[in-house]
From TrEMBL:
Name by which UniProt lists this protein: Succinate dehydrogenase hydrophobic membrane anchor subunit
Major localization listed first in the record, in broad terms: membrane
Lineage: Bacteria, Bacillati, Actinomycetota, Actinomycetes, Micrococcales
Keyword Methyltransferase: no
SUPFAM superfamilies in the record: Fumarate reductase respiratory complex transmembrane subunits
Keyword GTP-binding part of the UniProt annotation: no
Amino acid sequence: MMSTTIAAPRTPHSAPRRKGPNLEKWGWMYMRVSGVLLVVLIFGHLFVNLLTGDGIHQIDFAFVAGKLASPFWQWWDFLMLTLAMIHGANGMRTIVNDYVTHGGTRRTLVWAIWIVSVFLIVLGTLVVFTFDPCLGVTPDSVLWDRCQ
C-alpha cells in the first residue's frame, strides 16, 4: 500500500522560477492603479460635462470644441483614453488567456487585441490633439464668423 503525503500549504513549489520580469504581476498591478485613476478621471469628466453650467443641454459641437482647445482638457482626455484602452485590452487579454486553450489561437487573439488597442489610442490621440473646429467650414456654416 502506498501512502501519499500532502505538502504543508506554505511549502515552496519545486518548479524552477522563470527569469525576467513577472508580467502577470505587473498587469495585475496596472489594473488596480489604472482602475483607481479611471474612476477619478471619469467622474471628473462626467461632473464637468453633466453637472456644471447647463448640464446636458450645454453639450454641443461648440462645447466640445471649447474643451478640446484647452491643453488641460486635451491631456485629461488623452490620459482617460490611454488608461481605459490599456485597461480594457489587458482585461480582454486575461479573458483570452483563461478561456482559449490552443496556443497559436491565443497568441493571435492577444496580438489582435493589442494591435487594435494601439490603433485606437493613436487615432484618439490624433483627434484630441489636432482637433480643429474650423476645418472645412464654408461660408454657409454657422461657424463661418467664428473661424474668420
